[in-house]
Amino acid sequence: MTLRELQKLAKQLGLNPGKVRKAELIKAIQRAEGNFDCFDTAKDYCDQLNCLFREDCLK
Length: 59
What we know:
Distance between the termini: 13 Å
Mean pLDDT: 90
Number of strands: 0
Number of domains: 1
Radius of gyration: 11 Å
Shape: globular
Number of helices: 3
Low-confidence stretches: none
């Protein structure tokens, strides 16, 4: 997901995306959706199967 797409999603969730790093914006979106803010912390495995960012996170 591009930064612009993330900013649009954040605005839809009522967040102010401002000027933050991509990973921090994703974590804010995860929190707003009621999920764990765990982006970029998984080590070879993630049990959050419905997370929008799972594929990017596990790269």
